[in-house]
Amino acid sequence: MKVGKLDWDDLKYIIDNSRGSIRDDVRIRSGIGEDCSVINFGEYECVVSTDPITGAEKNSGKLAVNINCNDIASCGVEPLGMLVTILAPEGSSLEDIKNVMQEIGEETKKLNVEILGGHTEITRAVNKMVISCSVIGKGIKDRAVATSGAQENDDVIVTKSLCLEGTSIVVNDYEDKIKNILTDEEIIEAKGYVNSLSVVKEGVIAGEFGVNSMHDITEGGVLGALWEVARASKLGFKVYKENMPISYITKKICKEYSIDPLRFISSGSMLITTKNGDKLLDILKSHDIEATIIGKIVKENGILVEEGIEKEVLPPQRDELFVLKERIV
């Protein structure tokens, strides 16, 4: 099997055939595109999610905190606690683990998230450090937003710029090769993208505004996220490539290595669907969050319009980050 997430059909089969018991107190269940489960606790509900970091060498602690807290934020809920598991390969130093935990501690403080517990060990089962986190959030009953809630004619919004995570990983992990493509100033800017990966602020704002659906854009990029939202909601979408917010630095890297920025890992950008996109854009802007309407939710089919030509969007495959890594070495 190739490196990266399992493809949609295989993953769906595994989930459908190994879910365990079905409980009445679980209101929203995780699944394809539905990264969180929502559990009813009476007046309140608990939102839970989990994810590992495997594709980055540097800033793995920062990434681990943000991608997991972003999942909770995609339900419109503020994350409050995190469990951290670190599996380090034989030969790792105590300093390696301390550095990662320092990153995790600094990021969780920024987000007002408490580290509730976890597990740390040295093991021969891995050849590089693997960080896996589980996060919980607390919200008012029936208020959490589901990925599957998109409605026909919703505006489709993305926040900030796409590919912030992918660009940051590549520039931080392969600076010696990227310096032949980017200027020193561009490298500094791209390294700084790692500080813009949280979507907690916009997730909570959108949740309070009352949107129909949200999904943080991770592996598979914006097209993968769109496909998952549409599939979960049993609808389609029509979006425009010319509307996609992508930095000139990301475009230079993608052009050099012939990868598609629309399928490039994009933590730091939230996908939102709502009936009143313009009003939400104004609210986000008032909080210094840039956002762009890229298209609409439609009745069926996923369509990307590029230079006036409509192209069907296929199910997400492995992320372009893994393709780039094969080409950059």
TrEMBL record:
Q: Which InterPro entries match?
A: HypE, PurM-like_C_dom, PurM-like_C_sf, PurM-like_N, PurM-like_N_sf
Q: Which Gene3D superfamilies match?
A: PurM-like C-terminal domain, PurM-like, N-terminal domain
Where does the PurM-like N-terminal domain lie?
Answer: 33-137
Q: Which domain of life is it from?
A: Bacteria
Domain PurM-like C-terminal, first and last residues per copy: 152-302
Q: Name one GO biological process term.
A: protein maturation
Protein family membership = Belongs to the HypE family.
PANTHER family linked to this entry: HYDROGENASE EXPRESSION_FORMATION PROTEIN HYPE, HYDROGENASE ISOENZYMES FORMATION PROTEIN HYPE
Under which name does UniProt file this protein?
AIR synthase
